[in-house]
Amino acid sequence: MKQKPFLYILIVLIALTLLSAIVSNSQITYASQLIMILSALKFLAVAFYFMELRHANVFWKVLLIACLTIFISLVLII
């Protein structure tokens, strides 16, 4: 198991979390949408790198992205 890609993904996850915290404390008009997009990116990073979905069948990748897209769309609509 190579440790470098996991370290880079961990740094990206920490940076996205800090960016989410900064956006939540700002007065940006579309802060909730931006936070949802950042959380989706974090979810995909964890799923593909730490849950090893990058080696899975294409069906599972498409299903995961479709479910995530539907979920975030429903949350943003409501």
Automatic annotation (TrEMBL):
List where this protein forms a coiled coil.
none
A Pfam family this protein belongs to?
A: COX4_pro
Q: Which InterPro entries match?
A: Cyt_c_oxidase_su4_prok
- In the UniProt record, does the keyword Transmembrane helix occur? yes
Q: Which residues cross the membrane?
A: 7-24, 30-51, 58-77
* UniProt subcellular location: Cell membrane
> How does the protein associate with the membrane?
Multi-pass membrane protein
The entry's cellular-component GO terms read: plasma membrane
Keyword Transmembrane recorded: yes
Q: Where does it mainly reside?
A: membrane
Q: Which UniProt keywords apply?
A: Cell membrane, Membrane, Transmembrane, Transmembrane helix
What is this protein's name? Cytochrome c oxidase subunit IV
Instruction: Tell me which species this is from.
Output: Xanthomarina spongicola
The major lineage groups are: Bacteria, Pseudomonadati, Bacteroidota, Flavobacteriia, Flavobacteriales
